[in-house]
Specification:
The protein is α/β, with parallel strands linked by helices. It contains 8 helices and 6 strands. It has helices spanning about 30-35, 45-60, 90-95, 115-125, 135-140, 150-165, 165-185, 185-200; strands at about 35-40, 65, 80, 100-105, 130, 145-150. It has a 6-stranded parallel beta sheet with strand order 3-2-1-4-5-6, with helices on both faces. β4 (about 100-105), α4 (about 115-125) and β5 form a beta-alpha-beta unit. The mean pLDDT is about 95.
Length: about 200
């Protein structure tokens, strides 16, 4: 599409994580009160996200929901703890580190096939359960370095499975973290790649 409107050179650059912010954090006793949970979802409100969360909440799963725009969902279900609060810097990484399962919903209006959380969650050594797309499964192997879902039923099934198997869940999270480090997808690495592509195009 960019080429069709006149762009002469188009490069697809990987999403990335910030090494100073996105890393594993050991929570203090006080922080655990705020961030420790079985399941969390970070992101702004969208109706389809709410419907998926309501489905799993109605089936006994408690979820911490962070991000803006959720004020209309407060107190809609006792299993949905709507924080309606944006997370910044270490707050964000603490929420990921404190959650056994980090849900990763994509924004449909942007036609997302991947989002920044797709890299940031594994970079914090968080277990990621994301909407299934080819682009994400190419980066993190399904069931090995992250896991995915394509329906609310599959989402619920996988949440129940991973909450019942700590060893499997922690192994997947650890594998995802190692993949982040080895794949060189930190912001510094990606900036180096951009500079190299720009330099090459000017030769």
């Amino acid at each position: 599409e960019l080429k069709s409107i006149g762009a002469k050179q188009v490069e697809l650059i990987s999403d990335s994580y910030c090494e100073e912010i996105h890393h594993p954090i050991t929570l203090t006793s006080k922080e655990k009160i705020t961030y420790l949970t079985d399941v969390s979802a970070i992101g702004a409100y969208e109706q389809d996200r709410y419907e998926s969360l309501l489905h799993i909440a109605s089936n006994g799963i408690k979820v911490n929901v962070w991000g803006g725009g959720w004020e209309g969902c407060v107190n809609k279900h006792p299993n949905l703890d709507i924080k309606n609060k944006f997370l910044f810097n270490d707050e964000y990484s603490k929420a990921i580190s404190g959650s056994k399962i980090n849900l990763n919903f994509l924004r449909k209006m942007n036609r997302d096939t991947i989002t920044s959380r797709s890299i940031e969650i594994p970079a914090c050594k968080g277990f990621m359960l994301a909407e299934r797309t080819n682009r994400q499964t190419e980066i993190f192997i399904e069931g090995v370095e992250a896991d995915y879902f394509s329906s609310d039923e599959e989402l619920l099934t996988k949440i129940k499975f991973y909450l019942s198997d700590d060893a499997k869940r922690l192994k997947v999270a650890d594998n995802g973290y190692v993949k982040c480090i080895k794949s060189k997808v930190s912001m510094n690495d990606v900036i180096d790649q951009v500079v190299e592509k720009v330099s090459s195009s000017q030769k």
